[in-house]
C-alpha cells in the first residue's frame, strides 16, 4: 500500500514536489540576506540613537568617526581602535563602548573656573594621556613623544605641550600652565570667572583685569559658517575648540554674528580680533553685525576682522592677503599664527540704494551694503543662474571646482545667447554727478576692492595699459565696462583689458527699460526699471596678512615700483 502511495519516478507529482523545494530554497536564499540586512540596519539605528542620547547629555563635545586619521588608542581601555568617538574640545578619543566611562572619568575643558577667583592666578596643566600629535616633543627632555605602539605620554589640552610618562612622574605634577604658543589669543577661564564676579558686584573696569594678561593680549573670536563652500566649517570648528577656549568658537548657522560678537563687550577696548571662516557673503554678514554694534554705542568694542576663505569666489579675502581659498593645505595652528602677525587696515563699505521707477513715493527703496563690487550684465546673469540652481539642490554645490565649472557653463551659454546686449541703450551712468557716454557694452562693474571674478585684477589690467593699483580704503570706486561673457573670460585669462570708465566717490545708474540681472557681492537678483545710487557708508577694521601674496600681487607691486622709478 505504501509503495502505491509513493509517486512513481518521472511522474508529474514528483516534478511538482521538486519544484516546490527549489522555490522554497530560492526564497530562503533571497529573503534571509534581506532579513539580516534589515536587522543589522535596525540595530545600527538603535545604536546611533543611543549614542546621540549619550552625546547630548555629556559635558564633552563628542563626535563619532568611522576611521581615525592616525593610530589611535582608547583613553579608557587602552586598546587600539580604528573607529569610535572623539571630543572636539579636549581631544579625548575612546571606543564606542567606553563613552559613558570616559564621561565619568575625564573632565572636558572648563570655559570658566568653578571656584570664584578674584585674581588671575595661573592654572595648573590639564593633562590627557595618549594620542599625542605626531612629531611632538617632550617639554622636559626634548625627545619625541608618542613613539610607542600603545597608550602613552601626556598632552595638556590648554597649552598643547606634551611630556613622556617618565618625565611627568619626575617633575611636572604641580607645574602651572601658561597656555602655550597661543596665550595671547586665548580667553583664560579665570578671566571669565573674574568678569562674572565683577558683573555681580556691578563693576565694569575690565581694563585693570586685562592688564594682568599683558599688553600683547588680543583675544580671538572664531565665527565659522559650517555650510560655506566645501563644507569644511564643521571640522574647523572642532580644531579651533581644541586650540582655544571653546567659548570663543561659534557656528554662525546656530549663533548669529550679532549675538556672538557680544563677547567683545567683556574684553578690553579695541583688543578683540575676529576670524571669519566662510565666503564673502559670511564676511559681509559679520561686518553688518559690527555696524549694528556701532549703532548700539559699542564703538570701543569693535573688533578687527580676518578671513579664512571657504567660499567660491573669495575676492575680499584675496584682496586682504588671506588667499583665494582654504582647503586644509596649512594646519589650523599656522592660521592662528598668521592672525597674530596680521596688521590692521581699513575697508570702505558702501550703501547701494535701489529705487524702483514709478514708485518713488509709494515704495521704500531697497538698500544693500557693498564690500566688493556691484555689477549689472553678464557676470550678474551667471551668478543669478548659479544661485537659482543651488537653491534647488544645495548638496550638489559643495565643491569649489564644481561651482566654478557651473559658472563656466552659464558663461559659455551667454556667449551664444547674449541676453544683456545693448546695455548702453538701456542705462544712463553718472560719476560724481556727471553723465558719462558709454560705448556698446553688455555689462558695467563698480569695484571697491582689487580683485573680481575669483582672483582677477580688473582695474589694473595688463600689458602697456596698466593703471595704478585700486585701493579699498581711499573712498573711491573704480567703474569698468565689459563687452560680453567672452570678454569677461578673456580678462580672467589675461588676454584683454576691461573698458575703464573712471573713478568716483558717488555712482548713479539709471535703468530706463526692460529687466536686467544685478548683483551686490555675489548676491544676484533680476531688476526692472530703477535708479541705483552708490554712496560711501562707513569703514570696517580688517586684518591684512602680507605673507600670502599671489603672482598678480607681486607683478602689480613691481609695476608700481617701476612707475615710481621712471618718475
Automatic annotation (TrEMBL):
Domain Phorbol-ester/DAG-type span(s) in chain numbering: 59-108, 124-177
GO cellular component: cytosol; glutamatergic synapse; membrane; nucleoplasm
Single GO biological process annotation from the record: modulation of chemical synaptic transmission
GO molecular function, one term: zinc ion binding
Keywords: ATP-binding, Cytoplasm, Kinase, Lipid metabolism, Membrane, Metal-binding, Nucleotide-binding, Repeat, Transferase, Transmembrane, Transmembrane helix, Zinc, Zinc-finger
Pfam families: C1_1, DAGK_acc, DAGK_cat
Reactions this protein catalyses: 1-octadecanoyl-2-(5Z,8Z,11Z,14Z-eicosatetraenoyl)-sn-glycerol + ATP = 1-octadecanoyl-2-(5Z,8Z,11Z,14Z-eicosatetraenoyl)-sn-glycero-3-phosphate + ADP + H(+); 1,2-di-(9Z-octadecenoyl)-sn-glycerol + ATP = 1,2-di-(9Z-octadecenoyl)-sn-glycero-3-phosphate + ADP + H(+); 1-octadecanoyl-2-(9Z,12Z)-octadecadienoyl-sn-glycerol + ATP = 1-octadecanoyl-2-(9Z,12Z-octadecadienoyl)-sn-glycero-3-phosphate + ADP + H(+); a 1,2-diacyl-sn-glycerol + ATP = a 1,2-diacyl-sn-glycero-3-phosphate + ADP + H(+)
DAGKc domain mapped to chain residues: 215-356
Enzyme Commission number(s) of this protein: 2.7.1.107
SUPFAM superfamilies, per database record: Cysteine-rich domain (SSF57889), NAD kinase/diacylglycerol kinase-like (SSF111331)
TM regions (residue ranges): 22-42
Protein's cellular compartments: Cytoplasm; Membrane
Gene3D superfamilies: 2.60.200.40, 3.30.60.20, Probable inorganic polyphosphate/atp-NAD kinase, domain 1
Matches recorded under InterPro entries: ATP-NAD_kinase_N, C1-like_sf, DGK, Diacylglycerol_kin_accessory, Diacylglycerol_kinase_cat_dom, NAD/diacylglycerol_kinase_sf, PKC_DAG/PE
Role: Membrane-bound diacylglycerol kinase that converts diacylglycerol/DAG into phosphatidic acid/phosphatidate/PA and regulates the respective levels of these two bioactive lipids. Thereby, acts as a central switch between the signaling pathways activated by these second messengers with different cellular targets and opposite effects in numerous biological processes. Also plays an important role in the biosynthesis of complex lipids.
Family: Belongs to the eukaryotic diacylglycerol kinase family.
Annotated protein name in UniProt: Diacylglycerol kinase
Amino acid at each position: 500500500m505504501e509503495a502505491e502511495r509513493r509517486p512513481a519516478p518521472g511522474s508529474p507529482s514528483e516534478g511538482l514536489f521538486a519544484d516546490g523545494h527549489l522555490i522554497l530554497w530560492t526564497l530562503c536564499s533571497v529573503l534571509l540576506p534581506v532579513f539580516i540586512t534589515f536587522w543589522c540596519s535596525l540595530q545600527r539605528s538603535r545604536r546611533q540613537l543611543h549614542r546621540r542620547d549619550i552625546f547630548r547629555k555629556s559635558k564633552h563635545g563628542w563626535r563619532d568617526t568611522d576611521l581615525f586619521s592616525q593610530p589611535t588608542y582608547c583613553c579608557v581601555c587602552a586598546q587600539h581602535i580604528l573607529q569610535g568617538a572623539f571630543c572636539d574640545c579636549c581631544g579625548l578619543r575612546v571606543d564606542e563602548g567606553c563613552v559613558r566611562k570616559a564621561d565619568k572619568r575625564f573632565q572636558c575643558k572648563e570655559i570658566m573656573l568653578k571656584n570664584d577667583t578674584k585674581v588671575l592666578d595661573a592654572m595648573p596643566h590639564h593633562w590627557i594621556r595618549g594620542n599625542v600629535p605626531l612629531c611632538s616633543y617632550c617639554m622636559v627632555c626634548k625627545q619625541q613623544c608618542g613613539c610607542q605602539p600603545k597608550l602613552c605620554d601626556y598632552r595638556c589640552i590648554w597649552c598643547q605641550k606634551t611630556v613622556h610618562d617618565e618625565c611627568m612622574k619626575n617633575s611636572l605634577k604641580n607645574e602651572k600652565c601658561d597656555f602655550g604658543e597661543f596665550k595671547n589669543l586665548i580667553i583664560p577661564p579665570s578671566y571669565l570667572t573674574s568678569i562674572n564676579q565683577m558683573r555681580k558686584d556691578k563693576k565694569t573696569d575690565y581694563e585693570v583685569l586685562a592688564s594682568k594678561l599683558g599688553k600683547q593680549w588680543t583675544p580671538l573670536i572664531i565665527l565659522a559658517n559650517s555650510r560655506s563652500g566645501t563644507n569644511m566649517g564643521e571640522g574647523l570648528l572642532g580644531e579651533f575648540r581644541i586650540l582655544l577656549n571653546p567659548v570663543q568658537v561659534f557656528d554662525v548657522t546656530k549663533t548669529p554674528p550679532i549675538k556672538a560678537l557680544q563677547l567683545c563687550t567683556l574684553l578690553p577696548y579695541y583688543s578683540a580680533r575676529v576670524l571669519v571662516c566662510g565666503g564673502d557673503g559670511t564676511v559681509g554678514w559679520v561686518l553688518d553685525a559690527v555696524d549694528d554694534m556701532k549703532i548700539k554705542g559699542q564703538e570701543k568694542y569693535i573688533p578687527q576682522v580676518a578671513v579664512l576663505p571657504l567660499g567660491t569666489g573669495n575676492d575680499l579675502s584675496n584682496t586682504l592677503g588671506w588667499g583665494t581659498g582654504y582647503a586644509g593645505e596649512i594646519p589650523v595652528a599656522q592660521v592662528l599664527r598668521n592672525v597674530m602677525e596680521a596688521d590692521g587696515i581699513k575697508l570702505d563699505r558702501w550703501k547701494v540704494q535701489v529705487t524702483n521707477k514709478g514708485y518713488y513715493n509709494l515704495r521704500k527703496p531697497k538698500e544693500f551694503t557693498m564690500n566688493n563690487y556691484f555689477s549689472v550684465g553678464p557676470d550678474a546673469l551667471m551668478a543669478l543662474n548659479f544661485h537659482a540652481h543651488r537653491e534647488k539642490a544645495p548638496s550638489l554645490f559643495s565643491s569649489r571646482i564644481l561651482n566654478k565649472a557651473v559658472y563656466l557653463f552659464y558663461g559659455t551659454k551667454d556667449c551664444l545667447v547674449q541676453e544683456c546686449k545693448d546695455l548702453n541703450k538701456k542705462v544712463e551712468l553718472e560719476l560724481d554727478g556727471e553723465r558719462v557716454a558709454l560705448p556698446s557694452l553688455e555689462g558695467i562693474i563698480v569695484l571697491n576692492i582689487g580683485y573680481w571674478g575669483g582672483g582677477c585684477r580688473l582695474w589694473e589690467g595688463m600689458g602697456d595699459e596698466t593703471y595704478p593699483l585700486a585701493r579699498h580704503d581711499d573712498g573711491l570706486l573704480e567703474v569698468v565696462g565689459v563687452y560680453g561673457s567672452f570678454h569677461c573670460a578673456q580678462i580672467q585669462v589675461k588676454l584683454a583689458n576691461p573698458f575703464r570708465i573712471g573713478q568716483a566717490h558717488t555712482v548713479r545708474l539709471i535703468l530706463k527699460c526692460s529687466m536686467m540681472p544685478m548683483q551686490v557681492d555675489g548676491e544676484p537678483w533680476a531688476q526692472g526699471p530703477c535708479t541705483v545710487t552708490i554712496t560711501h557708508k562707513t569703514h570696517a577694521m580688517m586684518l591684512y596678512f602680507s605673507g600670502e601674496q599671489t603672482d598678480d600681487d607681486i607683478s602689480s607691486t613691481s609695476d608700481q615700483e617701476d612707475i615710481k622709478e621712471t618718475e
